[in-house]
Specification:
- The complex is a heterodimer of chains A (about 425) and B (about 300).
- Chain A contains 21 helices and 10 strands.
- Chain A is mainly alpha-helical.
- Among the domains of chain A are: about 70 residues, no CATH class; about 90 residues, no CATH class; about 120 residues, no CATH class.
- In chain A, β9 and β10 form a beta hairpin.
- Chain A is flat.
- Chain B is mainly β and about 300 residues long.
- Helices cover about 0% and strands about 45% of the residues of chain B.
- Classes of the chains: A mainly alpha (about 425), B mainly beta (about 300).
- At the A-B interface, β6, α15, α17 and β10 of A face loops of B.
Chain lengths: ~425, ~300
Amino acid sequence: MKVYLSLVMSLLVAVFLTVTTVHAQDNALKFKLKPGASGKLCLKCHVATQETVKKPFVHTPLKTGDCAGCHNPHTSSHGKLLAEETANICSLCHSSVIPKDARSAHKVVAEGGCMKCHDPHAATTKFNLVKGGNDLCFACHKAMGETVAKVKFKHSPVGKGCLTCHDPHASAKNGFLLKNDVPALCVGCHKTDKPIFVKAHMNYPVANSRCTSCHDPHGSDVAGILYNTVHKPIASKMCNQCHEESTSPSPLKVKRSGTDLCKGCHSTMVNQAFGKNRVHWPLLSKEGCLSCHGPHASKQKGLLKQDALTLCGSCHKDTITRQEKSMTKHEPISSGNCAACHDPHGSDGVYLFKKASVVDMCGTCHDWQKHSTHPLGEKVRDPRSRSLSVQCLSCHRSHGTEYKHFIPFATTTELCTQCHETFKR
Amino acid sequence: MRRFIARCIGTAAVLTIPLGALAAEGFKVKPLQAVIADEKGGELKFPEGVACDGKSLLVVADTGNGRLVRYTYQDESLKGGSEIKLPQLTYPLRVQVAPTGAIFALDGKQRRIVRLNADGTFAGYVDPKGVTGEQGVVPRSFRVDGAGSIWILDILGARVLQLNGEGNVQRQLEFPKNYGFISDLEVTSAGDVLLLDSNSALVFVARKGEGTFIPLSQSLRDYLVYPTYLMTDSRGMIYIVDQNGGALIALGADGSFVGRQLAMGTKSGLLNYPGQVCLTPAGTLFVADRNNSRLQLFTLGR
């Protein structure tokens, strides 16, 4: 078998070298190079490259002396006399790096930034990588690098290398560049029939469950690499608080559906929210609490599925986008603290505000008398519409505008003369 | 009455609409009047709903005051403004007038549909009977069609329920796959059911007699910021309220974009978080201009 494999490998290498040599010969003919000049002529001037080619891993065209495989020796419309745009040059040979209709693709690869990871000439690292191991990945994925370094409980494959689980270029069928889907990827190492595995999962048949709904594959500070925020029943290994008994015919089935299940423990919160005039509609939907919260464990406080900006922005995209584009940033929004002003469960007033009055709401952070002495309050009527009283939102839009200070006009004068028309010039 | 009229803002001569909103003008709206109070001068507060019967009755869901207010509209003039305040309806969000004159209102606090007699007295709740599945029903919106059927947008069951006049479920339509958040439904005069997905700015349709929703159009994200209400006219034109954009867009019956009108603001003719709208056969458009705490009247034409 070994002999057969080495024969196949030798044949493949021979074919590859033949193809590249033929390609090099084509270019030699194309540029009418003198006999024996190919691969030597360029290096006469490009002395530094003479040293480069001494590195252990050399890009095949360079190795075969085919500089013209990537560069045009005479003229080019692209930098470095490249025969094609930097973003496209690699794909002339490496066209299948991203499979057609790939489920996920590494952004840098999709954008043609191959040289961010690979040296196009030669490198000391296999595959011409500019750095070896996880250092290369963490050069961009800095936060991940820091997390992985400091977590108390590490996932050993991460230490071995990101490529244990991820494909660096693209994944035809899986998200997050994963080599296989979850749980298939996980059960490749974690044998689900082992007694220790079964015991750790309280005899529940989780072999086909999504492991990453509880476990952080990059490690965490919680034993069992559970996400840092763990739902109390999970932490106390009381899965049967929500799910049917592990011995039942349908052990993973939840005992009740929607908010009825959560209400069993969180009755105060549910009753308070449901007693308000306005309940956040997703809480009343089929998903109920799980519209925003994970039932098992999460990276986020409050078992939120994602950070607040991403989570709230999944529905209120316009609001988050407005803030991102705003010239002045409203601190609670830019820090993802939407709940500073809004009650995400329910409220008696519009916008799910935590306070009944807008002035009181803004006043929790902003001292109006220091900010402005403009008359405000129920007794001060808005001249633009007598149905309204003057309050903070009469002049400001709290999620931002394209102008400074959250005002919806380019200048303060333009804003003020909306009401004080006699001063309009 | 004099006080009421005095509190009404008169016809606005010029409508302030940003140029962007005029990019496409397949239809036009022109402001007529704004109403900010009832017949006794009691101001409206965050009204979210408005319904008309096609003749002269106009009912406003004065949400912030926890009441309905009934007006009559004749000869381009709004009269009356009598209050309907019931302990069974403390936070009306949306309102409908049935062909029989009965008034239906969705109560936000109880999340139930309340049925009132034509004189405004409480007649009962519309609690669907014969619903399948273990979960209950949470109506996000509803419609009463010309035949008296009540259509409920049930976000808990992720479905549309068609009830007869007695509240018995006649038909059930599941939400489309991969929906975002469905805010409203409409039943066209041809019997098609439309759904409005606020998150993806998509309109779905289930043709009459068919049980599946399919997209009627591409995403309307280029024309809408965050839509929450839709309505059709007798010709099948679809009107969508852009709550966060303070505007109204029109689509053809096939879902093609026709135009966008109105803009966000406080002055007369502008909208700030509009809620429900209704349209009379004569082309008068009523808008519950929630955050401006008023009802606005427009003429709508093509």
